[in-house]
Write a structure and sequence with these properties.
Blueprint (H helix, E strand, L loop, with lengths): L12 H20 L14 H21 L7 H16 L1
Length: about 90
């Protein structure tokens, strides 16, 4: 006897709208931070603009570290946490 896979689940209109809305929100956030989305080709962005966006991002990250807004982890601890998250997702 051959096992048949479960029927494919189709997304409802509400689920599709939520997904589109989330994508729009993420794009807006990334745009505000000066980060281009995957649809923008790198050759379309002037190098000076890319460098300025990275300087801004690095400045924000350094300020987050100095202010204590983020917690720095060493390599081993960060990988332990990532492994634990992946294991939890598989359950």
């Amino acid at each position: 006897m051959v096992a048949t896979p479960p029927p494919a689940r189709t997304a409802t209109a509400r689920e599709l709208e939520r997904a589109c809305s989330a994508r729009r929100e993420q794009s807006a956030i990334l745009h505000q931070r000066g980060i281009r989305n995957r649809e923008t080709r790198s050759e379309d962005v002037p190098q000076a603009e890319v460098e300025a966006a990275w300087r801004d991002e690095l400045s924000k990250r350094i300020e987050d570290i100095r202010s204590g807004a983020v917690e720095l982890l060493d390599f081993d601890e960060s990988h332990r946490q990532i492994r634990a998250q992946l294991i939890a997702r598989r359950k």
